[in-house]
Write a structure and sequence with these properties.
The protein is α/β, with parallel strands linked by helices. The chain has a single domain (9-244), classed as Rossmann fold (3-Layer(aba) Sandwich), CATH 3.40.50.720. 45% of the residues lie in helices and 15% in strands. The chain contains 9 helices and 7 strands. It has a 7-stranded parallel sheet, with helices on both faces. β2 (33-38), α2 and β3 (59-63) form a beta-alpha-beta unit. α1 crosses α9 and α4 (107-135) runs parallel beside α6. The radius of gyration is 17 Å and the shape is globular. The chain starts with 8 loop residues before the first strand and ends in a 9-residue tail after the last strand. Pfam families: adh_short_C2. Residues 192-211 are annotated as: Disordered. Keywords: Oxidoreductase.
């Protein structure tokens, strides 16, 4: 049994990032057409879209400021004109910043995390869910983090943004469930990406020893979970927060 996303269109925000580009490639490999979102890195986005097109799927690179509703609406219109309606939305983009203690973290970092985690989720829902409701189907997938359950030192702004995102997704799941739209979150651990492979930094004894599987996961592990949630195999899963971290965090009942 395979994951068949043929005939569907996916949007991945932050698709030029370390995890985002593997998600885009994996969704395309499962048969989906893909809108490759970027904020500033147009060249990398277009290269990824060209790669997906060369593999036989339709793809387009699209720019948007994910913290602004009007920018996301303009992106939606471009995708609609070139690929048609969006069936799968993956909210992966997040603003990067320097982590430090609560007492030292600048106020603007809390604001940036709210805007890129909470408001991005709200804006994407406003832009894409109404058409999903009309079709009676759709997938909203947010990329959260294991940090939301850890609360380690220096994580406050990131955790605040991602826990706010979690609240939006859980409420949205209840609101749009009657329309057969699923809303779920994937929560990566500290994940091995292309950067680690290039730099030879895949191993981290301090982290690995606390993971039940005794290793870090990979970008492909995250992308596989996203593809599963996007597929018909996950049609009765909604409102879930799914850690993909080798058991490093375990939600309790």
């Amino acid at each position: 049994m395979g994951l068949n996303l043929q005939g569907r269109t996916a949007l991945v925000t932050g698709a030029t990032g370390e995890l985002g580009r593997v998600m885009a490639r994996t969704l395309a490999a499962c048969g989906a057409d893909v809108a490759v979102h970027y904020n500033t890195n147009e060249a990398k986005a277009e290269a990824l879209a060209a790669e997906i097109r060369a593999a036989g799927r339709r793809a387009v690179s699209v720019q948007a400021d994910i913290t602004k509703l009007d920018s996301i609406l303009a992106m939606r219109d471009k995708i609609s004109a070139e690929l048609g309606h969006v069936d799968i939305v993956v909210a992966n983009a997040v603003i990067q910043y320097t982590w430090t203690s609560v007492l030292e973290q600048p106020e603007e970092d809390y604001r940036s995390q709210f805007e890129s985690c909470v408001l991005q989720s709200v804006h994407l829902a406003k832009a894409f869910v109404p058409a999903m409701i009309e079709r009676g189907a759709g997938r909203m997938i947010g990329i959260n983090t294991e940090c939301s359950m850890q609360h380690f030192e220096s994580q406050s702004a990131y955790v605040a943004g991602k826990r706010g995102m979690d609240g939006v997704y859980r409420v949205l799941a209840k609101e749009v469930g009657p329309h057969q739209i699923t809303v779920n979150q994937v929560a990566p651990g500290w994940t091995i990406s292309e950067r680690d492979r290039t730099n030879g930094t895949e191993k981290s004894e301090g982290y690995d020893k606390n993971v039940p599987l005794k290793r870090r996961g990979t970008d492909q592990d995250i992308a596989n979970t996203v593809a599963f949630l996007a597929s018909d195999l996950a049609g009765f899963i909604t409102g879930a927060y799914i850690p993909v971290c080798g058991g490093n965090v375990m939600p309790a009942i």
